[in-house]
Structures are given as C-alpha cells and as structure tokens.
Design brief:
The protein is mainly β. The chain is built from no helices and eleven strands. Strands 2, 4, 5, 6, 9, 10 and 11 form a seven-stranded mixed sheet that branches. The termini are far apart. The relative contact order is 0.32.
C-alpha cells in the first residue's frame, strides 16, 4: 500500500498563489492514479483535479479550471497542485488521494480512491 502526506497549505490573500505537494511512500508511485479533493466546513468533499499514472492526462473541476494545475514527478514520488488566482471560496482542507491502477485513465469520483492523505488547510482571505 502507499502512504500519502500533503504539505504546502497556509494562509494567503485573494489573488495569491500556493503550491501543494503530496509525497507518496511505500509502493511504486507510478502505478497509482492520483487526485486532489477539498472539503470546506459543512460541505461535502469536492473533486478538484486528477492525473493519470504517467502524468500525461489530467482533468479538472470547472470551479478551478484555468487557475489550478495538477502535475506529478514519478521520480520524486510526488504530486503537486499549483493554485493561482485564489479566491475566498477556495478555503478548505485539501486532500490528495491515490489508487493502484492498471490503466492510464483519470478519475473524478472520491469513491474510486482508496488511499488518502491527512489533509492540509488552505485559507484564502478577502
């Protein structure tokens, strides 16, 4: 199994940027499809972006398309989420997720993933 750990969250003003990282350990990272999700207080967990095993296919939620970029470095066992033009409504706990996958697709449903990090808080002030 793989262990996931997010980092890079924090407090930023609206319009600013943050880069989240998700470090993986315990298994061959390149065998895992990966995704980012977030959950704001009182709301359900929301899909943000996903990336396939090789990193050449990505998909985004409409709410972040054009502002956020997902990427991965399989040599470093790390996935990233570059977040630009942040808005107060982006405030949430951000989670990375992974699933061992024999295909090269991207997956948006949280129920697809069976490994999760502990989350990192992102707060955007207005």
């Amino acid at each position: 199994q793989v262990q996931l750990a997010e980092s890079g969250g924090g407090l930023v003003q609206a319009g600013g940027s943050l880069r989240l990282s998700c470090a993986a350990s315990g298994h061959t990272f390149s065998n895992y499809a990966m995704g980012w999700f977030r959950q704001a207080p009182g709301k359900e967990r929301e899909f943000i972006a996903s990336i396939n095993r090789s990193g050449d296919s990505t998909t985004y939620a409409d709410s972040v398309k054009g502002r956020f970029t997902i990427s991965r470095d399989n040599a470093k066992n790390t996935m990233y989420l570059q977040m630009n033009s942040l808005k107060p409504e982006d405030t949430a706990v951000y989670y990375c997720a992974g699933k061992y996958c024999s295909t090269y697709g991207c997956y948006r449903r949280s129920t697809f993933y069976n490994y999760w990090g502990q989350g990192t808080q992102v707060t955007v002030s207005s």
